[in-house]
C-alpha cells in the first residue's frame, strides 16, 4: 500500500512529465468517481480540454491544479499507481481505471487492481469541503513545523500508543505501518509508548526521525515490497535496502546485532528491536 513517500515520488514525476500539458481526452473505467460526481461524464467534462498547471500534494492526495481554478484530486487507495508508457504503447492486461491523454506528450494511466483509488475534480474553494482532505493533520514532507507543535499534536491523545498516533491521518497525514515502524526504530522508541510518558528530548527525537526517514525514503524512490509497487515508468523503489525493522522479524538488528521482533498491534503485526527501542 502506498504511503507518503511513494505518493510524493508520483507527484514529482507527474510534475515533471505532465504539468503544463492540456488534456485532450479522459477515459474512466473505475468506480472511484461516482461518489463526488453525478456521473463519469461529469468528471470527464471537468477534466477534458483543460490544462494541468502543476501538481501539489496533501497527505496521500495528489492535487492537479487545472486552469479555471479547478483541482483534479487523486488518492491511491490500497493499490492505485500512475503509469506512463515510455514508447506511448500500453501493454495489454493492465488494471487501468483512468486514462488521461494530452494534446502533446502522450498520456498517463491510473492502474488500480482493487479499484479503491479515488479521483474527482472540484473547484479550488470546494476542496476544504471534502471531508477526507479537510481532516488531514500535519504533513511531515511539507512545511516544517517546530517539534514542539508536533508534541502538542501528540499530547491531544496522551494515553494512546505512538504507532496508532503516527497512523492517524487526522494527526499526521499519510503514514502506514511500514514507515511508522521505521520512524519509531530511528527514534529509539517502542510502538506502545504513550505521549504522556515522553520527555521533551524524546518528542524532538521522534519528530526528527519522522522528517529524516521520510525524506530519505523519497530520495530512494520509496519501497517496492510487492512487484506492483513501482513508479510511473515501472522502476522499483530502492528504500527496501534501507529498511531496519519492517518484516525483518528473526533477523539481526543492523545497529545492536540483537534480533528484530514481531508483535501483534491493532490486529496487525508491528516490528521493532527490543534492545534499541524503549
Ligand atoms: Zn537493535
Give an overview of the whole structure:
The chain is α+β, with helices and mostly antiparallel strands and 278 residues long. It folds into two domains: 4-134, N-terminal domain of MutM-like DNA repair proteins (Alpha-Beta Barrel), CATH 3.20.190; 147-272, Helicase, Ruva Protein, domain 3. It has helices spanning 4-17, 40-47, 131-134, 147-154, 162-166, 177-187, 200-219, and strands spanning 23-28, 52-58, 61-66, 70-75, 81-83, 96-102, 107-111, 118-123, 261-265, 268-272. The strands form three sheets. The protein has a four-stranded antiparallel beta sheet. Strands 2-3-4-8 form a four-stranded antiparallel beta sheet, covered by helices on one side. A two-stranded antiparallel sheet has the order 9-10. It starts with a helix and ends in a 6-residue tail after the last strand. The model has no long low-confidence stretch (mean pLDDT 93). The structure holds zinc ion (ZN).
Secondary-structure map:
Blueprint: H1 4-17, E1 23-28, H2 40-47, E2 52-58, E3 61-66, E4 70-75, E5 81-83, E6 96-102, E7 107-111, E8 118-123, H3 131-134, H4 147-154, H5 162-166, H6 177-187, H7 200-219, E9 261-265, E10 268-272
Antiparallel strand pairs: 1-6, 2-3, 3-4, 4-8, 5-7, 6-7, 9-10
Bound molecules: zinc ion.
The dominant shape is globular
CATH architecture of the largest domain: Alpha-Beta Barrel
Helix and strand composition category:
alpha+beta
CATH topology of the largest domain: N-terminal domain of MutM-like DNA repair proteins
Percent of residues in helices comes to: 25-40%
Estimate what percentage of residues fall within beta strands. 15-25%
Our measurement of the CA-to-CA distance between the termini, rounded to an integer number of angstroms, reads 28 Å
Which consecutive residue ranges, at least 5 long each, have pLDDT under 50? Answer: none
Number of domains: 2
Amino acid at each position: 500500500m502506498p504511503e507518503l513517500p511513494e505518493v510524493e515520488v508520483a507527484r514529482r514525476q507527474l510534475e515533471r512529465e505532465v504539468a503544463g500539458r492540456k488534456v485532450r481526452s479522459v477515459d474512466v473505467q473505475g468506480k472511484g468517481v461516482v461518489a463526488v460526481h453525478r456521473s463519469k461524464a461529469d468528471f470527464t467534462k471537468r477534466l477534458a480540454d483543460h490544462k494541468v498547471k502543476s501538481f501539489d500534494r496533501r497527505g496521500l492526495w495528489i492535487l492537479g491544479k487545472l486552469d479555471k481554478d479547478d483541482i483534479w484530486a487523486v488518492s491511491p487507495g490500497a493499490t492505485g499507481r500512475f503509469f506512463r508508457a515510455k514508447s506511448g504503447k500500453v501493454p495489454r492486461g493492465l488494471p487501468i481505471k483512468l486514462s488521461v491523454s494530452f494534446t502533446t506528450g502522450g498520456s498517463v494511466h491510473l492502474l488500480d487492481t482493487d479499484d479503491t483509488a479515488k479521483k474527482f475534480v472540484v473547484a479550488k474553494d470546494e476542496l476544504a469541503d471534502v471531508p477526507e482532505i479537510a481532516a488531514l493533520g500535519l504533513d511531515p514532507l511539507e512545511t516544517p513545523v517546530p517539534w514542539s507543535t508536533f508534541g502538542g499534536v501528540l499530547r491531544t491523545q496522551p494515553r494512546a500508543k505512538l504507532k496508532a498516533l503516527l497512523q492517524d491521518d487526522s494527526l499526521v497525514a499519510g503514514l502506514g505501518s511500514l514507515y511508522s515502524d521505521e520512524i519509531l526504530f530511528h527514534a529509539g522508541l517502542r510502538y506502545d509508548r504513550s505521549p504522556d510518558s515522553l520527555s521533551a528530548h524524546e518528542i524532538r527525537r521522534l519528530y526528527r526521525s519522522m522528517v529524516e526517514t521520510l525524506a530519505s525514503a523519497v530520495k530512494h524512490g520509496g519501497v517496492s515490497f510487492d512487484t506492483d509497487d513501482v513508479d510511473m515508468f515501472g522502476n522499483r523503489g530502492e528504500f527496501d535496502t534501507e529498511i531496519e525493522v519492517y518484516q525483518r522479524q528473526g533477523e539481526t538488528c543492523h545497529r545492536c546485532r540483537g534480533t528484530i521482533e514481531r508483535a501483534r498491534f491493532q490486529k496487525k503485526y508491528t516490528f521493532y528491536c527490543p534492545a534499541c527501542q524503549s
